[in-house]
Amino acid sequence: MSSTTSGVVVGLLLALAAIAGGFTGFLLALVLGAAGGLVAAQLSGTLDLGALVGGRRRG
Prior knowledge:
Blueprint (H helix, E strand, L loop, with lengths): L2 H42 L4 H4 L7
């Protein structure tokens, strides 16, 4: 799936969340979408959340 197609699908899903849940539903969809994106990036190896949040450091 191209990035353009992904963007269109995400936009449509956010529009549905805004219609069904109002502004609160829209914000919840944004937060959960961002969390899902972070988890997906971590699992695919694109992002290292341990390095992002500081992780455990040994001295």
